[in-house]
Amino acid sequence: MPTSSNRDTSSPPRSLREIDLSAITRDRQYHPSPTAWDDEVLYFLMLDRFSDGKESGGFADSTGNPVAPGTPERTTPLFNASQDDGNASWNEWFESGKRWCGGTIAGLKDKLGYLRRLGVTALWVSPVFRQVTGSDDYHGYGIQNFLDVDPHFGTREELREVVAEAHAYGIRVILDIILNHAGDVFAYRGNQRYFYDQGVQWPVDGYRLERGDAGSIPFEAIDVETSERIWPDGAIWPVEFQNVSTWARRGEIRNWDAYPEYLDGDFCSLKEIDLGATLKDPASNWDLLRRIREFTPSPVLDSFIKVYAYWIAWADIDGFRLDTVKHMEPGAVRYFVTGIHEFAQSIGKENFAVIGEITGGRSRAIDILDTTGLDAALGIDDIPDKLEFLAKGVRSPGNPETMDQEGYFDLFMNSILDGKNSHQWYSKHIVTMIDDHDQVGLSRKYRFCGDSPESAGRLKLALGLNLATAGIPCIYYGTEQAFDGADPRTDDNSFGDVFLRECMFGGPFGTHRSKGRHFFDEGHEVYRFVGRFSALREREISLRRGRQYLRQVSASGDDGDFWYPQPVNGQLFWVVAWSRIFAESECLCAMNTSLERELTVSVVVDRKLHEDGRPMNCLFSTDESQEGETVPVNWRACGATIRITVPAGGIVVYR
What we know:
By secondary structure, this protein is of the alpha/beta class.
């Protein structure tokens, strides 16, 4: 059971002048970076919604011993669908989802064994930093102190401890960080909402002491030695951020695609930070290189580099997920990423990852990656859509015989159409996932399983597709337990994000409109599937780094009857197959999007790799009785083929 007995009681730094990075890092051995991030399996969790450490039954501790009921601290039993589905009042449940629910760092530490057995090798953790006092910013994106952990979550020392223990279990830790904005830390004139209007800078009354305060703290840098009245609850920290020049002060964004409004406006009530200056000519918005060349960093941007270098040094962090890259000047991103990479390399983290949330289209995301030095991107709009709906049998997988990019596999074809000449570019630079915490750009919000009762039966297909295709795979917490994340309302989408953020530990806001029941069920069929498939991925380098080819299939196996599967009348309930080839090894993967019947088909494989006539072996199947079976390689006019049977709604892998 996690405890708080070793919590750090020391006060965090109030000024960056108090931080001596060389003293923190001296004679310290840091956890090394991975050789390649495409070898990893990421898992994104919202800390407030993950675990409070009070669960029992259904899972084991970090050493593999079952966590059984019977102690006063373990008060939350495992969810039972037949008894607990819908056990909460809808209104109370929904309102609870808008507020803090109680997940902690200690609870996360308690579940490291659960995560490792799932196959997770890198945790992406939502922002842990201190939020505006009295706010409902459970998500962590409304920061008031960038140098402290929010007390809802725990302490700085607990963060350092959970990272160290994660490392001991072979799990790296990526922190979600923010440069673009802080929390609602100051009040505009009259404590009113102001909106972006042609770049006008609006008057400010002062910093807030707590949520809703009308600005009772002077809007200026505060003397650290005489700041007891406002420490730690008021204004913004560290003190270097309190300068008036830190803030854009242009009011809330209304048009999220208008330049430069989406760069300079406040992110709703969250206050925009001025990271530096460059040209603001709308006609040059497309010219990223010129905007980067002419960019001049602000003092606060240098401060941010030291803030986040401090967290790497203090807690041995392995990577950052950088929020809202679309809303920052590319010059600021490049400047920050360069500084962070250099610091990480100075302490031996040669492959420290900075992963950017880049919305606004795939080609734009690729340009941002190329020009800023970000290591990878996520949030790219068409990739999760094509992944999800291919598994649901309503999208084309693609067609290598055309130049169209309409299907999922078209997006990863040696990247020629995106100006990339390496098959490994996508594998190393794109994070792929089906569920996430905000689904940018969508008004109706739901997880993979939330749109139809049938979708739960297709979840293994989507997860297998994600784990066995190019990219850095990421699982959103709860997906391995088939969370539905559905918004049942019909007329109000203003809080749609709430429904994507259910509590794994139950609390007042469990999935399936439940409360007081947890979902750490290691016997769940989807959890078991992910664990087995992740283990296969770890063993087979082809599934992590291999070239990727969509394969032709045939029901008859006759010459002239092999085709790339395509939807008929908008539906594709058939076998989709692809190969991952690395050096002289080929893994053939195939999934059956029909939930009604198993399908036996012939599939093309690489002719050169099978000239010796050796059979292929079944390494994995959702029907475990198939594993270990061998199939002969046949020769047809189209080349080498094998004949396989794919279970209904299942997936197989042959080598």
